[in-house]
């Protein structure tokens, strides 16, 4: 598959993947700004307010009706984070025009709608419509609370918060419940203007385009014009690349939380210092797969299957922060045993105790995962976007080639970078379940 071609104007980056593989065209707009405690909640709320209506389509019903008129265009928004950047996203998808009668200009119309959603949301006076704000504050509270209700997700975020303490990487992507009461239509509108004035804007256009150059010029022109009221001038340079967190010493943080849970959540967070742009990143991907990335991994086989010490046992890698996290669900009374055998798997990885079969299974699993992404346009955009934030041009094909070249020696070498930073345990409120447990 051909790669993305980038057209840049200051902080605006248009990445075009011209392909006839899909019968749908996609437009994905990502706004990235540094994560910060004082604006994380307000910024996370903005994309949901955008869908409440626009200047010409004053409510959600009118907005959705307009999307339906565009041959059932799908319009969605969301909030997330990558490394130390908060990412606000809006995307639209429309059918390929050549397959429809009377659909000329469909992609341009979808681009116009999406641009209006982002840059001209419905307002009243000096801020967002009060009714829209109150509705979305209630819904956002539920979004944040749903994370706490999902104990696996909650434990992961709390462990990450500890691993990244002192750095914006650890801020929650949806923000904080206690901030919601202080948000109003005017304060959110000010945050909206600040976002559009300062964010790096990455736009992904995917599909078959008869004249890619004309489309790119028209789309960039539309965006520059729509964003111009929010910034006096276009910055000449994008923000610096996202970098990984380096290990910070030998002292391990121990965090214990008590909640009414039936199953303890034992997570171990490691800093690696290996960034997404590092030549060692592919080897770290393989090392993570060997450790806990598949049903043939060391954690799954030895902790869950052989020792029967965990209901689940896996590891995941956050490539932009360089944090590897082990996640397990255990009986609280087996804490010491589980912790010991988890650490033993990490030490085995560092010692080079990786069989050819383990290496082959890990690489095959990763290869299959990346090949599947070839059928998922927005996932292709997301991989490219991670590279753009990290300052490296990396496509799926590049990753596949790099993964194939990873050796056992590479895995052993990169495993030395794993520095245990935090042991996090979410357990029930019963006291004295295992020896040495801080309560």
UniProtKB/TrEMBL annotation:
Keyword Protease: yes
TM spans (from-to): none
Domain of life from the UniProt record: Bacteria
Keywords for the protein's UniProt record, in alphabetical order: Hydrolase, Metalloprotease, Protease
Peptidase M16 C-terminal domain boundaries: 215-366
Molecular function per GO: metal ion binding; metallopeptidase activity
Keyword Cell cycle appears in the UniProt entry: no
InterPro entries, per the entry: Metalloenz_LuxS/M16 (IPR011249), MPP/UQCRC_Complex (IPR050361), Peptidase_M16_C (IPR007863)
Protein name: Inactive metalloprotease YmfF
